[in-house]
Input
Amino acid sequence: MRSPFSAAWIRRALPTGRRAVAASVVLALLVAAVVWALWPDRPGFRTESAMLTVRSGPAGDEPVDLDTTLYLPRAAAGRQVPAVLLAHGFGGNKDSVRADAEDLADRGYAVLTWTARGFGRSGGQIHLDHPDYEVRDAQRLLDWLAERPEIRTDAAGDPRVGVVGGSYGGALALLLAAQDQRVDAIIPMITWNDLARSFLPESTGAAPTDGVFKSGWAGIFFGGGGNAGSGPTGISGNATEAPEGEPAPGPPSPAPGTGPGTAPGAPSNGGGPNPSCGRFAADICAAYLRIAATGRGDQAAVDLLRRSSPAGVLDRITAPTLLVQGGADTLFPLGEADANARGIAANGTPVRVAWFTGGHDGGAGPRSDSDRVKFLTAQWLDHYVAGTGEAPRNTFTFSRIAGFDPMGRGLVATGYRTTEYPGVDGESRREVTVTGPAQPVANPPGRNPAAISSVPFAGSLSSFLSGVAGDLPGQHARFTSEPLAEAVDIVGSPTVQIRAASASGEAVLFVKLYDVDQEGGATLPSGLIAPVRLTGLPENIDAAQPVTVTLPAIVHRVEAGHRLRLVVATSDQAYATPIEPTVHTVALEAAPVSLPTVAGEQIPTDALLWRWVLVGLLAAIVVGLVVVVAVVRWRHRRQDTSVHPAYADTPLAVRHLRKEYADGFVAVSEVDFEVHPGQVVGLLGPNGAGKTTTLRVLMGLTQPTAGEIYVFGHRLVPGSPVLSRIGALVEGPGFLPHLSGLENLKAYWRATGRTVADAHFEQALEIAGLGSSVHRKVRKYSHGMKQRLAIAQAMLGLPDLLVLDEPTDGLDPPQIAEMRRVLQRYATDGRAVLVSSHLLAEVEQTCTHAVVVNKGQIVASGPVEEIVGDSPSVLFEVSDPAAARTVLDGLDGVRVLEDADGQLVVDTDGTARSEVVAELVRAGVGVNRVVPRRRLEDAFLALVGENSRGSGDR
Output
């Protein structure tokens, strides 16, 4: 059938002059159809950007221009949708939360984002979420939303709206909900309760005027506001960024975006930039300068900061509140959300609390954490704002870092939940005693040098920094616990009582709680510390009264075997401390460190479910392998359970052993020897002689071509039960590097299926001589330490036959000498040892018997003294070694051997020693002494030849 848009049809249907135009239209239609078909999916929303002028200020008549963007879901066409007011963090702008706005819009919400006054292209000055300015600005935005026809309303002028924000935006959400009852739900994230206590913290409960100024973070905030006109500084304070393509909304993104700055000459609306403080309001600027100069807060500054704090208005919040707080946050720690939760819940308002592993210092945290926060956010908004979905349960969720993702995606967090929110005090307490004498600590003059506990935005680096400059000598006191008998999961705020004395009567101290592993590595969880300012102190520590210090809340697991270390320091780079040098004395009260704990249920995730599936598959594989091994062992036992009577009491009998590979290479052609109780037998031979192949066959690592091996009369086959009577070190040590030496030994013994009582760990470790190093991770072992650990593993259970391949490899001379004594002691009570070694001098001193292998065959075997006795070498002590060598080189059949000691060793090869002496005397060489050279090395060289090479043992 001909297309209706064909050229012939057009020519017949239209006058000639109009054919070109018609063809162009058809072509355009075809192109549009193709583009429409190939064009990627359009976003599920459209945007409207505008500069909105709102009126705020104490009287509500001061205009300010706000840079806004409204995201409207396309599915909302013809119907009204609920709205979300999405606020950015300090130093950011509306673009900081763009990704989150898009996610919410895709979910069906109208989302209004804006750049707060004093930042980016918006006008006005920064008043730190002042109720008359930033909060009233947000109220005017609610008015504007209520007038939009697309927005669902509860009444005239009352939009159906939730408020979401992180840090600066999170406090705005709380303050707006307290000031405007039109807000239907709020989700404040990583924000503050009392801004005065946040920047002037004091961990004994003193007023903020006695707090210790958090100068590091305050300086960054002030710098961010001072440069706000030229774009954000990177302080968004937002918790997480939704991954591209994720349908569920998330909390605001960690990156602030890069919005354009204020254009030159643009109106400021509400006051021009302060020449000293950028776009900060004058009262904010003056308060900061006062505190920064003195390091102390005053009541006026505290009142100003509390004006911008939710703490004083929590009783007015009726909007259901989801509080999300990060554990990696030295700016606003978990206690801020705890104070907000308790204040809001006191009114009967629905409150839910979620802790995650990120924060101002940790970003969004691992993917599992950000997914959990996104789910909670969507659930909260859907029920309380959109009116869909079940009511969220009033559960408390928290998480801690569990390790690394094996797929290379960074850290992994494990989430937990409880039915009731326990607060920072936890559900129960675990007490751990730390001890140490009273100690003097010095405050450095001029605040320098200062310790480093954390770096803003990088609290996770505290462990590294602690090893570099964490606690400076002379500026801190340490109190340490014994190793913990079992692991402790800390969830909340630890507490401890300290005492201090000072001639100055006052001290600023910083209390820290470290987790110290067996190797001495110290971890300060998230870099969190408790600043303390103590006044009215006595000069003598005996007169000092105990003071309870509440440390910041943490979520941290202290493993069994780790210690707790309480540190009390006088300086910290993140805080302003006294300039005057002085010395204090610090002591601990008898009460121990009190640790809060919470028994949480693990939250299932997709990764966890897949992990269990994988575990199930692995378990099935393991069960299958166990069945196969059991069947094979059963068949072997059924085939041959007899005991050869001639070898019933012989630890090892090797009979006519031969190993030939598929390519025809013969590694062992004829090896035949026995090892009897009480013997230490050395298996000797040049490289490639067949020693290692013999041992590999003996241990069942490879099958012989011919011959038999008997252990106490039992024919040796793979899986034979008699293998349990053999301990071996063949082909070098192999251990799990992330486990300690002791943990490796225990894991090996558990794999044998035998009881712990049969392991004889203490004897084996005494033999290894590792001392306290047995508790260190194996990845930090030297080669010699791994060798000693492997020998201890071979001796576990005190097997009747010990087979060691180069046991002294990597050991120093004293350790080699000790190994000699160990092997001799071991070959008692019916036990025996077979040693393969290239150190002939050690074999001579250690072994009772020797088996010499060359080119896959035994060339000598028997007691060491018999093999040595066959040596024709003689040691000559002469007056002129050089002249003697010349004489001896001229005698037929006489050969001068090389000797490491520089002595003259001669192989007479049957020539009478008296004849050799006579020739030397006739040549004028004085002969002082002639003794037989009875060395195993000489016998070995005589047996295999100096230049002998083996068969290429492989």
Notes: The chain is about 30% helix and 25% strand. The radius of gyration is 41 Å. Residues 428-599 form a domain with the Jelly Rolls fold (CATH 2.60.120.260). The chain has five domains: 7-38, 45-199+230-259+308-421, 428-599, 645-865, 872-933.
